[in-house]
Design brief:
It is built from 15 helices and eight strands. It is of the alpha+beta class and about 375 residues long. The strands form two sheets. It has a five-stranded mixed β-sheet, covered by helices on one side. The protein has a three-stranded antiparallel β-sheet with strand order 6-7-8, with no helix packed on it. α7 runs antiparallel to α8. The longest helix has 23 residues. The radius of gyration is 29 Å and the shape is elongated.
Length: about 375
């Protein structure tokens, strides 16, 4: 609970308030229900708390430094009157640029300038679907950690989406600090503890790879699975590439004479992927459609396949692998490489990782491989020295 102290709030008084280990609310001596909340990081936010026919209501008015004490008091007086009259005023109404204004500028001047098309689409989805509906009209000067906590909690049933929403909002507010729209160090997202999410690791065994290969062959022969979709799934298994990298491959980037392909839209930037003889055969057998530059062609003329998962779900069901995601094929590629004796540095190069820390997630598999090798050696020696 915030400690309650009464002072006559002015710019000079609020400037002199010091942060403590816990947040503190200082209530104004003259206007009942008007106060300023001081956070441990030094951020100070004006607020009002009043009671109307629908019960007690607390509303953030604005951040000190963005609006003055007199401006906050004036807005607070109006808000308290509206609460008493039974209205439902929004937080910080009419006090500067809103979260929606920041989102528009952030997308236009930062994301669309610096990010790849897929990243831009991801930001649009997260911000448009999760951030703007509840927070779009909230002024930046009034945005507090109670708003962020509520946003995070309302998405608790989808923890990944909840964390992504808070992450996107946090990056927007960091940029707002750089642009001088909010005070430095005022990002309320820092106080929200992200939900723990379990990233399932699934690796196909030799027997499961065999079942998947047979399912692809059978469904393609039956005419249900298009040749381009079947080729995409086979390439995922044989190269360790991401699904977006495979479906985004153009014929002009395929060099079968050099057994390699060039990826333009890799997550870590453009890179060259070596092709095994098996992967090269898959590419050589992919039907080329006149006027279509994409290797994995879609249904529409000149377009690429955009929903590989549509075909993947029935394939994995036929193979009895309902818990396997497309991305698990990439994990399985790394797992097989470790089993064959490749080290993490080489696997990072095969997967296109920029940092070794990214590949380190497979370190436990390397330890398992070492244990298996040690057991084989020890068993061999034991057969010679032990009765």
């Amino acid at each position: 609970m915030a400690r309650l102290e009464r002072k006559s709030l002015s710019n000079r008084v609020v400037d002199g308030l010091r942060a403590r280990d816990k947040e503190v609310i200082y209530w104004d001596r003259d206007l009942r229900g008007f106060g300023v909340r001081v956070y441990p990081n030094g951020v100070k936010t004006y607020l009002v708390q009043g009671r109307g026919p629908r019960g007690s209501k607390r509303i953030a008015v604005g951040r000190h430094g963005t609006i003055s004490a007199d401006e906050a008091r004036s807005q607070g007086t109006s808000l308290l009157a509206r609460i008493k009259a039974g209205e439902e005023p929004g937080a910080g109404e009419g006090s500067g640029p809103t979260v929606a204004d920041l989102a528009e500028r952030y997308m236009r001047e930062h994301v669309e300038v610096r990010c790849r098309a897929s990243t831009i689409a991801g930001y649009r989805l997260v911000i448009g679907k999760h951030v703007l509906p509840p927070l779009g009209k909230v002024p930046l000067s009034a945005l507090g950690r109670e708003h962020v906590a509520e946003l995070h909690y309302r998405l608790r049933k989808t923890p990944v989406a909840a964390n992504e929403a808070v992450g996107a909002l946090s990056r927007m507010l960091n940029r707002a600090e750089a642009w001088g729209l909010v005070p430095a160090g005022s990002n309320p997202c820092r106080f929200v503890t992200r939900y723990r999410t379990r990233r399932p690791e699934r690796f196909l065994t030799e027997e499961e790879f065999g079942r998947l290969g047979r399912a692809l062959d059978d469904m393609e022969a039956e005419g249900w699975l298009p040749a381009h979709a079947a080729a995409a799934i086979r390439l995922l298994m044989l190269t360790g590439c991401r699904s977006g990298e495979v479906v985004g491959l153009r014929w002009e980037d395929v060099a079968l004479e050099r057994n390699e392909v060039r990826l333009r839209e890799s997550k870590t930037g453009p890179r060259v992927v070596p092709l095994s003889p098996a992967a090269a055969r898959v590419l050589a057998n992919v039907p080329r459609l006149a006027g279509n530059p994409w290797v994995i062609a879609g249904r529409e003329p000149g377009e690429r396949l955009t929903h590989l998962a549509y075909y993947w779900y029935p394939v994995r069901e036929r193979a009895g692998l309902e818990d396997v995601r497309l991305h698990d094929l990439r994990h399985s590629f790394a797992s097989r490489a470790l089993a064959l004796g490749e080290d993490l540095t080489m696997i990072g190069k095969l997967l296109g990782h920029r940092k070794l820390q990214t590949t380190a997630r497979y370190a436990h598999l390397a330890r398992d491989s070492v244990k298996e090798a040690a057991a084989l050696v020890a068993d061999s020696i034991a057969a010679d020295i032990m009765p």
